[in-house]
Recover the amino acids of this structure.
């Protein structure tokens, strides 16, 4: 019987995709997917450290494995991802959890196979963290084992140069490194040939794609080149940083049918003073001007965002400005976060840290506003016909599900096998973010 693996993933889509790469490596070493942790011969934690609670989660779950490891000493436990890449983190992990066998970082994920070999027959743990890498991770082979059909993630760049004052990502992911357009296009074409219907291009700031090679290529051009494939598919991307969200990109969205008319444009805050302290390099008015420009060129466009409350020194008036901006920009939905100090970042050292009570109160008010906007938009769907890409079946509900171009989830009944197909749904009910409809023609 083959050995089995189990991967536990925390964090953003970048990490979800990297777990597909980890799965690919493990399969090439003869492992197959296990159903539970008890069932596994190797458990890999792909961690995140964007906020303290992401780290606490991982720490808690790694700690809980001590018993399992004791009962089954042959079990391999590996920890990788953003958490391990922080200064001193590998040492801390080793001390806290001496039963962890392998610790690797964000820059050497592709070496996991070798690290497993090194661990074999050795008592001591294998720790390998690479710093300041300039080349591109695993560029020469797409070794991902994808399980997200009909959707696929494709990296276009790694790292971040922006150093927003609250953010740990530039420290744990290194400087921006753009993949060559021909590599990306050939990966996308390969996926479309295999029948994938939705491609999401990933980068911390896709708008600076190509800047690290002196602008030899750029993001709008990449989108246009990918869209030369004329069959029906959807193209998404994330994340776009507002500071260099420009008209050429908006034109590329408007020109190409395949690019979804949904832009995720994280604003973070509505107060110029806070935005300056965050080092975001735009004002609220500049942000809203870009939203206006987008709506002019792509009138049926929807906007989503990331918003943070409780940044150091944030006053009630600053927070009110965030609420006003949420209304003015008309976000369809938003990911909302409570600011979490990250050691090594500028904001963690700032005076005027906000108390947990105030943070809690503000996040509740923000979530209420965002949810009200989402509900209002959803209710406008009732009676309309939308097109969704069917992704899966919810066995509990006995319903198929998929998303429209704006990412809204639609549920429906079907007696065929609609997964991977575009389906027209007449919407009968809307509740919060999800819709219920009837497939036309069934
Ligand atoms: N590169 C993306 C963001 C990646 S992190 C961008 O610039 O838009 C995703 C989100 O996590 C950020 O947009 C921000 O809202 C949130 N975030 C980042 N650091 C945080 C921190 N220290 N505390 C709370 N939220 C944080
Ligand atoms: Fe973090 Fe800012 Fe880079 Fe986004 S752009 S990853 S928020 S530093
Ligand atoms: Fe993503 Fe978390 Fe790393 S959000 S880039 S996995 S710190």
């Amino acid at each position: 019987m083959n050995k089995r693996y189990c991967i536990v993933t925390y964090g953003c889509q970048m990490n979800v995709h990297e777990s597909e790469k980890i799965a690919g490596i493990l399969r090439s070493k003869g492992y197959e997917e296990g159903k539970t942790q008890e069932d596994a011969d190797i458990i890999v934690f792909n961690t995140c450290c964007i906020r303290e609670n992401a780290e606490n989660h991982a720490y808690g779950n790694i700690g809980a494995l001590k018993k399992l490891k004791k009962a089954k000493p042959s079990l391999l436990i590996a920890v990788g991802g953003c958490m391990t890449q922080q200064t001193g983190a590998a040492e801390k992990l080793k001390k806290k959890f001496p039963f962890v066998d392998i610790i690797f970082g964000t820059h050497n994920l592709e070496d996991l196979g070798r690290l497993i070999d090194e661990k074999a027959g050795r008592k001591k743990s294998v720790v390998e963290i690479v710093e300041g890498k300039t080349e591109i991770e695993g560029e020469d082979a797409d070794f991902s084992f994808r399980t997200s059909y009909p959707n696929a993630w494709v990296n276009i760049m790694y790292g971040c140069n922006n150093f927003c004052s609250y953010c740990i990502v530039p420290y744990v992911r290194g400087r921006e490194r753009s993949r060559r357009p021909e590599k990306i296009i050939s990966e996308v074409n390969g996926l479309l040939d295999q029948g994938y219907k939705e491609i999401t291009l990933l980068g911390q700031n896709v708008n600076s794609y190509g800047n690290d090679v002196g602008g030899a290529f750029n993001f709008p051009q990449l989108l246009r080149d990918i869209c030369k494939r004329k069959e029906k598919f959807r193209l998404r991307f994330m994340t776009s940083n507002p500071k260099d969200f420009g008209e050429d990109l908006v034109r590329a969205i408007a020109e190409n049918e395949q690019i979804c008319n949904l832009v995720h444009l994280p604003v973070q805050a509505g107060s110029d003073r806070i935005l300056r302290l965050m080092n975001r390099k735009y004002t609220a008015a500049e942000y809203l001007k870009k939203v206006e420009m987008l709506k002019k060129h792509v009138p049926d466009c929807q906007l989503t965002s990331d918003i943070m409350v409780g940044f150091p020194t944030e006053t009630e008036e600053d927070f009110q400005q965030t609420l006003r901006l949420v209304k003015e920009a008309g976000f369809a939905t938003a990911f909302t976060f409570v600011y979490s100090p990250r050691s090594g970042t500028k904001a963690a050292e700032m005076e005027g840290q906000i108390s947990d009570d105030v943070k809690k109160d503000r996040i509740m008010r923000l979530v209420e506003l965002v949810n009200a906007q989402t509900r209002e938009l959803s209710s406008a769907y009732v009676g309309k016909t939308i097109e969704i890409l069917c992704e899966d079946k919810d066995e509990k509900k006995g319903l198929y599900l998929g998303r429209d171009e704006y990412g809204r989830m639609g549920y429906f009944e079907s007696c065929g096998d609609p997964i991977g197909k575009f389906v027209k749904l007449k919407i009968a009910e809307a509740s919060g973010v999800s819709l219920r409809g009837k497939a036309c023609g069934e």
